[in-house]
UniProtKB/TrEMBL annotation:
PANTHER family in UniProt: LACI-RELATED TRANSCRIPTIONAL REPRESSOR, RIBOSE OPERON REPRESSOR
Record SMART domains: HTH_LACI (SM00354)
Domain HTH lacI-type: 2-56
Source taxonomy: Bacteria, Bacillati, Bacillota, Bacilli, Bacillales
InterPro entries: HTH_LacI, LacI/GalR-like_sensor, Lambda_DNA-bd_dom_sf, Peripla_BP_I
Name of the protein described by the UniProt record: LacI family DNA-binding transcriptional regulator
One protein family per Pfam: LacI
Amino acid sequence: MATIHDVALKAGVSVTTVSRVLNNRGYISEMTRTKVSGAMEELGYQPNEIARSLLRKQSNLFGLIIPNVSHPFFSQLADRVEYYAYLEGYKVLLCNSQMDPDKERDYIDMLKRNRVDGIIMGSHTLEVEEYRSLNSPIVTIDRKIHNNIPYISSDNYRGGQLAAELLVAKGCRKIAHICGNLELQMLSNQRTDAFLDVTIKHGVERLVVETGLNVFDENKYEKLLGQLLQEHPDIDGIFATSDILGAYAIKESLKAGKRIPEDIRIVGYDDVGASRWVRPELTTIRQPIDALGKMAIKLLRMQMDDELVAFENILPVELIERATT
């Protein structure tokens, strides 16, 4: 494997000159730059990125920790984060915590060792102090963990409000809300708060069903929804806190012999691709996933440049009505 010394010898320049070309530091004539670049290409030289990052105290890496990369919302979010990071000249280290505190802690330690320039936290199973101990700029998704750490979220309360109001307006009189474990204290719990406020206001019978601590265990969804419809056959509306749950609600409602939307109306959340693939197509609350990814990168860059950053960053949601309502 070629070294920087081999490049210097091939180009007929000093090692210092090669280093200046690599790091774009100091004056280098175009002729010298061309000779060094040609020597690197001919020798197949690859610079040591770790050494270079230590030299310039910047790795050009961001870390993204999410709970489950297979979940459509987080896979689309990861795609948008990577896209906007790349536009800014950064690469992304993707960490899949799977809601495991030990795994999340290991990933945080790994990101520290790799001297990442910033971390986007989409998974939050650890205590707040463990996040505060990080020296890198941090942005969190959908959770407040400290007044000094900025967070990004869609307008969860408004999303829950739009979903519940639509079902009430369509004539639903007994509505079930399927959500994650409310003990996790996520900002997404505001969807449930809004659902309760709307249904209480209109005197509509309501049920709140929590999926459990691991909200990404899809194996439980089928059983949970099948049991719900069996125990409450008079349910005529379902507000699911994700499109995946909404898709299972469609499946189990059809299995129970219900017509959609004549007998039961269903609203999901996120507006991932699956909401358009299922039949009938799922009415849902659209989260601005592209804008979430773009803002996450923007907030990291602002912190790196010592700019003033807003603690709270709430993005608007939108009701997308399709065939299930």
